[in-house]
Predict the structure of Ribosomal RNA-processing protein 1 homolog.
Amino acid sequence: LAHTDKAVRDKGFVNLKVWMKKHPELERLDYMKLWKGLYFGMWMSDKRPVQQELAVNMALLINDIPAEKQAMWLDTFWETMQEAWEKLDTHRMSKYMLFARIVVAEAFQVCRLRGWPQELLRGFAETFTRSTSAARSGPNIHSIGLLLQFTRIFWEELQPQLDACKDAPEGFMELLGPFCDLAERSYSDALVRSIHQHMLRKVPAQLAPAVGARLAAAAAGGRVPQRNLQALQETAAFLGAEAAPAAADAEAPARGKKRKVVSKKGKAKSGAAGDAQTGGGDTSDGLVLPPLQLPEAALAVDGGEGSRKVRKVKRVGRPKAKAAKATAAAAATSGPSNKERKRKKTQDLKKARTARFRRGGR
C-alpha cells in the first residue's frame, strides 16, 4: 500500500478489498493497522487526480465493513489522523484535508442509505466526543487543526444528505452534542469561533430551536467559562430569532398561497429589506452569520449629522511645470557642474592617448 510505484499500490489495494471481505471478524487493532498502511499509501501518492482517486477508494472501504463495525472503522480512521496530523508538512497538508473531507462525506452517505440508525449516529457521536476531549482538557494539549477542518466541512458534506430527507433524523442532535460542549468549554479561541461560525450558526431551520435551547440553557447554567459565555449567548439569541419566522411559515395555512402570489411586489420589497439588514445572506438552506458590527467612526458618512469631514490637504509648493522651468533656467544661467567638468576632462584625456598611440604607430 505504501509502495512508490502506483501500479503496485493499486494492486495492493485490490488485494486489500478482497481480504477485508473474507475477514469480517477484524477488531479495533486490525483496523488501526489497516489505516496506518492506508495513511502512508496516501503519503506516497502524487498529483491531484491520483490523490483524489485513492481517497475515494479508501472512503468506499466502509461499505465492505460489517454494519455493526462501521462506527469503529470511522473511529480508528479519526484516531490515526489525529496522531499523524501534527507531523504533516505544508506540502502534504492539502491532500490529507481532501482525504478527510471525502471520508466524512462517505460516512454521512452511509448513514442516509441505512436510514440514519441510532446506533451508528451514537457511535459517530462517541468518536467526536473522544476527538474533542483533548481540546477541552487544557490549552495547547493537542493540535486542533483536524478539528478546525472538520468544523468547516461538516455542513458542506452533511447538507446534501439532509436535503434528500424530508425531516431531520431523530437523534441527530447527538452529532452536534460534542461540538456544543466544545463551544462551552474549549480553551482555543480559534476553535470556538470556528464552531460558532461554521457549525452552530448554520444549522437548518428545523434544528435551530433545539440547538438554541441547548445553548441558552448552558449559558444560564453558570458552568460556562467567561471567555466563551458571550459567544454562546449571541449564538443562542441568533438561533432563537431566526427560528421564529421559520416556525410561523410552517404553521401558515395552505389557503394563503394565492395571497402570496398576488403580493409578489410586497414580498420582494420585504425580502430586499431583510437582505439589507442581514448583509444579503440567503437563509434558504441554513442560517447565516449576522452582519459584523462596525465602529461608529467607520459608519459616519460625509455630510450627515455627527459625521467626520475629511479635509484634503493641498501640497505647499510650486507645480511640477513651474519647477521644471525654474530648474532649466537655473541650469542655463549657471556654468557647467562638477560632473560635467570631470566628464569633459576624461574625454579629453582619452582623445590625447588615442592621438599619441597613432603617432607612435606611424
